[in-house]
Design brief:
Blueprint: E1 9-14, H1 18-29, E2 34-40, H2 44-53, E3 58-60, H3 63-67, E4 75-78, H4 85-94, E5 98-102, H5 109-122, E6 126-129, H6 136-147, E7 153-161, H7 170-174, H8 187-199, E8 202-210, E9 221-228, E10 233-239, E11 249-253, E12 257-260, H9 266-271, E13 290-294, E14 297-301, H10 309-320, H11 335-350
Parallel strand pairs: 1-2, 1-4, 2-3, 4-5, 5-6, 7-10
Antiparallel strand pairs: 7-11, 8-9, 9-10, 11-12, 12-13, 13-14
Helix pairs in contact: 4-5, 5-11, 8-11
């Protein structure tokens, strides 16, 4: 691929549920380097919504129909159920497309490794949509860790807890852990990825997995303890039946701590009809600011602005700088999400 920073990258999005409609399509539309040309969904209501929101896009029924159009496309974004990620990504790479795979990258770490090797052999760009690396609260935590203001961090606590007593989506209700179902593959993928990004390689030393809700076939209540090679201990909670939520983050260090409640506002902002191009996008209400310091000496620390569009901005730069041959990094090196899958496999073996 030749370098052409002005080239329009022709994109197809497979799936128009929450992933495709709230995360991928709006972010792609917000980056001028991309053209959203094709969307696949078999649901009549979603077809109507996709046509209304993106009138220039062709709507097809299946990802297979997208692959038939591969000659007129550059990039396929997979927002489909986890069990489809490996076969669809493999087929797309072999069809000559660059690929974005939503998390979890694949259901098994060996599948992720195979895709990485295939992309390298074919000279294609492959990346994973670990969008919560651009949560405002995570960016705030990243800044605190990098600055050293907390001293030597000893304990990292991170939670995604929700009150969702019913399994709402049909594919989730039918999915077992072997299919990529359950909260560990869903929210846990984000928590594990963030912990590894902050504190480096780790081993799962404790895993508690349970299914609490009627009809849950995998897990919806998970607690993990990681021991990082750096010496940090991470405690990670994921719970879909949580009536009272704990802090999103708590970090303890030799010089102080940081506690943060609330969840990044980017997803609900788009669900409510906002755009990533709006001036208030990614800006958290100051009432949700975290507390930094020690008990008796606490200061409110405003949360950094969230920045999901950064993923696609970086991807556009990579593709238009020569794609896989470019020295620019992909927004998320898929080796990281493979390491997340290995930790999930460790957790299941322990549990």
């Amino acid at each position: 691929m030749t370098t052409d920073p002005s080239r329009t990258i022709r994109v197809a999005v497979a799936g128009f549920g929450l992933s495709g409609s709230v995360f991928h399509a709006p972010l792609i539309a917000a980056v001028p380097a991309f053209s959203l040309d094709v969307i696949s969904t078999s649901d009549a209501g979603r077809k109507s919504a996709a046509s209304a929101s993106y009138p220039g896009a062709r709507i097809v029924d299946t990802p297979a129909a997208i692959l038939e159009l591969a000659g007129d496309l550059d990039l396929l974004v997979l927002g489909t159920p986890p069990a489809t990620h490996y076969p669809l990504a493999k087929a797309a790479l072999e069809a000559g497309l660059d690929v974005v795979v939503d998390k979890p990258f694949t259901v098994r770490s060996a599948e992720g490794e195979e895709l990485i090797q295939l992309a390298a052999r074919l000279g294609r760009v492959l990346t994973v949509f670990q969008n919560r690396r651009w949560d405002g609260d995570y960016l705030t935590v990243r800044g605190l860790v990098d600055s050293g203001v907390l001293g030597a961090v000893t304990r990292f606590e991170s939670r995604f807890e929700r009150w969702s007593p019913a399994v709402a989506k049909a594919w989730k209700a039918a999915a077992t852990a072997d299919d990529g179902g359950g909260v560990l593959f869903d929210l846990g993928t984000h928590l594990l990825d963030q912990a590894l990004e902050l504190f480096g390689p780790a081993t799962v030393v404790h895993a508690d997995l349970a299914a609490r809700r009627p009809g849950e076939r995998a897990d919806d209540d998970v607690f993990l303890v990681l021991r990082h090679d750096s010496g940090v201990t991470s405690h990670l909670w994921m719970n879909m039946l949580c009536a009272q939520q704990g802090p999103r983050y708590r970090l303890l260090g030799s010089e102080g701590g940081y506690t943060k409640h609330g969840v990044d506002p980017q997803e609900p902002f788009i669900v409510a009809g906002g755009s990533p191009l709006d001036p208030d996008y990614g800006v958290e209400d100051r009432d949700w600011a975290g507390m930094l310091g020690r008990d008796g000496h606490l200061d409110r620390l405003p949360t950094a602005r969230g920045a999901y569009p950064e993923f696609y901005r970086l991807l556009a730069e990579k593709i238009n700088d020569g794609g896989a041959a470019s020295a620019l990094p992909v927004p998320v090196d898929p080796a990281g999400p493979v390491e997340v899958l290995r930790l999930i496999e460790q957790a299941r073996a322990l549990a």
